[in-house]
Design a protein that fits this description.
- By secondary structure, the protein is mostly helical.
- Helix content is 81%, strand content 2%.
- It contains 8 helices and 2 strands.
- It has a two-stranded antiparallel sheet.
- The chain is rod-shaped, with a radius of gyration of 27 Å.
- The mean pLDDT is 87.
Length: 175
Amino acid sequence: LERAWSLRSEKVMPSNLVDSVNQMIKQRSFKVENLDTLKGSSPFGEIIYSALKNKNASLEVLKDSIEESSGLVAHKLETNINALGTISTVAPLLGLFGTIVGMVELFSSFTSSGHDVAIFARGISVALYNTAGGIVVAVPAMIAFRYYRSKVENFLNEMQIQTIAIIETARGERS
């Protein structure tokens, strides 16, 4: 739920941000205050800020600044996503542990005087419930993990493409 809230498109890449930056470029109103506001506006704003700060540098320096700020933004956007991956990995193992406990209980139903059907059935039940429980937790966690990881990658790709377009506009290479 936290990732769903934090990774909303409007929060990560506000739709009006590119237009407002292009407007600043056309009006040539690059001031430190504008750039500082841009940096704090959103993750996308951080990348644009870094690029605009280095817009007159060589292409290599500009590329490095975009990649560096993208890496920092990626780290922020991926917060708590690895927890989903860990949950999806550990849940089946805990289910397997519960299965073993159920099997131990199942085998305890066999005694020298015969076997107790109720204990045998309860052992099977414990084993199956734990196995199912591990899978029920792991599958949605794995789906969420992959979904949010993909969403972050898509955001980063789109932010880099749009940042390059903004820099080309700022350098006069694009209208």
